[in-house]
Amino acid sequence: MKSGTVAVIGKANAGKSTLVNVMVGEKVAIVSPKPQTTRDRILGILNEEGAQIVFADTPGIYKAKNALTDVMMRTAEACAKDVDLILYVHDGHKGVDGSDLSLMRRYLSFGIPMIVAYTKTDIMPEERIPEDAKALFEAGISCDVVPVSARKGKNIRKLKALIADALPEGEPLFPEDVVSDKSARFMAGEIVREKILLKYEKEIPHGVAVLVNTFQKRDGQELYDVDVDIVCEKPNHKAILIGRQGGALKETLAFARKELEKFLGCKVFLTAFVKVKEDWRDRADLVRRFGYGEEDR
Ligand SMILES: Nc1nc2c(ncn2[C@@H]2O[C@H](COP(=O)(O)OP(=O)(O)OP(=O)(O)O)[C@@H](O)[C@H]2O)c(=O)[nH]1
Ligand SMILES: [Mg+2]
């Protein structure tokens, strides 16, 4: 059978995590309209007839500005060098510019087979797709370019088949019932962070880390106790996160609790405390302590 690892690489906000979730058929990575949503390497495992594809979703390429983005870029870079295939995800609706071409050329130069997933085709004029494909070809991007829409599920089956085809023969790397390398505890923190990304504006969600203190099923009950620290960078961010009379935080937690209950398949009692660690993203020691840049959390 075919079996191998695929690094899912591309600019921040390109649609990598959405595509991985759609291909795996389950939500293994959080998604938001804001760049820099994914901070860790997250494996999403797809078992198909005759193939196991291990997708490694990665933090989007973004100019490193602080210790956190620095660690995120190193995570993506290390991942792209140690796989059987690179799936370069390009946001088609944004067009193709010089920076896209040089990134694609750079990953092609790693000497690892590569496929370009040209995504978000549902929100762009269809006639632009062949024009861009031609531009990529003329610029020396010599690999397969597959137009897809993760949102509409367009060409996903074709993309999966092309990926499986390009992988080596081998035994499965994971048992068939495993969909991710991340724990439910990790996902609980990520789901809270996703709701924060969706609810708050500007720098606030980017400066938030969610640390899971408690993740425990109550004895003899269909109920999980989940307690998190929401760490932000500045006292005024804390005030905004909490809101007037705690209203904003209450809404965020209700939103997160609903999804957690769906994810865990039982009731969840979710509590959170908002803390400030001044400019933690600039401090390598805190970035590490909050679990970023390590394989397991
Ligand atoms: N219309 C449309 N929107 C999409 C599609 N795929 C992703 N999006 C949207 O694009 C935004 C970014 O998606 P993500 O999957 O979080 O992108 P990402 O590349 O993982 O982003 P980072 O983790 O920040 O690097 C979200 O608002 C998605 O809903 C698509 O096929 N069509
Ligand atoms: Mg992502």
Gist?
By secondary structure, this protein is of the alpha/beta class. The chain contains 10 helices and 9 strands. It has 2 domains: 2-166, P-loop containing nucleotide triphosphate hydrolases (Rossmann fold); 184-289, 2-Layer Sandwich (GMP Synthetase, Chain A, domain 3).
Could you tell me the CATH topology label of the largest domain: Rossmann fold
Characterize the overall form: globular
CATH superfamily of the largest domain: P-loop containing nucleotide triphosphate hydrolases
Q: State Rg.
A: 20 Å
Ligands present = guanosine-5'-triphosphate, magnesium ion
End-to-end distance: 31 Å
Number of helices: 10
Widest sheet: strand ordering: 2-3-1-4-5-6
Please provide a written account of the structure:
By secondary structure, the chain is of the alpha/beta class. The protein has two domains: 2-166, P-loop containing nucleotide triphosphate hydrolases (Rossmann fold, 3-Layer(aba) Sandwich), CATH 3.40.50; 184-289, GMP Synthetase, Chain A, domain 3 (2-Layer Sandwich). The protein has ten helices and nine strands. Strands 2-3-1-4-5-6 form a six-stranded mixed sheet, with helices on both faces. The chain has a three-stranded mixed sheet with strand order 7-8-9. β2 and β3 form a beta hairpin. α6 packs antiparallel against α9 (247-264). 41% of the residues are buried. The protein binds guanosine-5'-triphosphate and magnesium ion.
